[in-house]
Amino acid sequence: MEKCLLPSASMSELQILDTSLFLWMNTGLTNPLFDFTMPIITLLGDKWAVWPEILLVALLCAPKAFHLEATNQDLTTAAVSRLRLFLFLALLYGITAGMYSSVKVSVNRDRPFENSVGELRISEEKAKSISSNGSFPSGHTANAFMLATVLSVALPRLSLLFFCGALLVGLSRIYLGVHYPLDVLCGALFGATPSLLLLKTGWLAKLFNRV
User: Fold this and answer.
1) What is the C-alpha to C-alpha distance for residues 106 and 33, in angstroms, rounded to an integer?
2) How far is CA 179 from the centre of its chain?
3) What is the C-alpha to C-alpha distance for residues 173 and 82, in angstroms, rounded to an integer?
4) pLDDT, tens only, 161-171
5) Residue 42: band (very low, low, confident or very high) from pLDDT cuts 50, 70, 90
6) What is the value of pTM for the model shown?
7) Do residues 138 and 187 make contact, with C-beta atoms less than 8 angstroms apart?
8) Structural domain boundaries in the chain
9) 3-state secondary structure of 173
10) What is the pLDDT of residue 210?
11) Using 50, 70 and 90 to split pLDDT, how confident is the model at 68?
C-alpha cells in the first residue's frame, strides 16, 4: 500500500519555517541571562531528574487526586499508599516515554547542530552523546509537560505556573541548539495529551487499583 505523505513542497516550506524560527530563538534571543539560566532550566526535563520529581509528587500530593483508592491513615497504610502513587506515576511516565521514544526512532530527525544550524550551547561531549538520539520530538519537553500535567491535576490552582515552567524547558532546548521548535511543540503534545487523558478519565487508575 502506498504511503500518504505531504507534498515535498509543503514539507520543504515547513522545514524552512521551522529553521527560521529556530534561528530567531537560538541566536536572536542571545543574552547573558539566558546563557546562565537555560542550561539549568533544561535539567528539569532530563530523564534522570524525572524520577526524583515523581518521588516528590508521590510524597506531597494526595493519591485521591489521581483516582487511586483511599487507604486508612496509619503509618503502614499511608506508606503503602505513597508507594502505590509512586508506582502509578512511574507507569504513566513509562507510557509517555515509550511513545515519544518510538517516534524518535521512527523519524530519526537530525538535530540542528548535526546540520550545522545555529549555535550549540552544550559541550561537544554531550552533543556527541545525544547525536544518535533523534531530534523529533523533544524528550525533555515531553517529560516537562507530563510532569506539569500531573501537578496541574493534583494542584489545579497552580496549573499556569507548572505549564509556564514546562514551556521554559522547551524553550531551553531550542536556545541550547539541540532541538527545532517543531520538536518542542510535538514534545509538549506527547507529554501533555496522553497524560491528561489517562489522568482525567481515571482509566489507568482503575486498571492500577485492580493490581
Assistant:
1) 36
2) 13
3) 32
4) 999 999 999 99
5) very high
6) 0.88
7) yes
8) 16-209
9) helix
10) 61
11) confident
From the number of C-beta atoms within 10 Å of its C-beta (0-12, 13-18, 19+), residue 174 rates as buried
The amino acid that residue 175 corresponds to is: Y
Dihedral of the alpha carbons of 92, 93, 99, 101, in degrees to the nearest 10: -170
Helix (H, G, I), strand (E, B) or coil at 170: helix
Cα distances (Å, whole numbers) of residue 164 to 62, 144, 147, 161, 184: 23, 10, 12, 5, 14
Cell of 15: 522545514
Residues 4 and 7: their CA atoms lie apart, in Å, by 9
Query: What single letter denotes the amino acid at residue 149?
Result: T
pLDDT tens digit string along 3-28?
444 455 566 888 889 999 999 999 99
Q: State the alpha helices, DSSP H only, in 108-202.
A: 124-130, 139-154, 159-175, 181-201
Q: What is the mean pLDDT of residues 34-53?
A: 95
Cell 496522553 appears where?
194
- Cell of residue 94, nine digits: 513509562
The contacts of residue 135 (CB under 8 Å, 6+ apart) are: 104, 109, 110, 111, 112, 178, 179, 180, 183
The CATH number for 16-209, chosen from 1.10.20, 1.20.144, 1.10.8, 1.10.287, is: 1.20.144
Reference 64, options 54, 55, 74, 73; nearest CA is 73
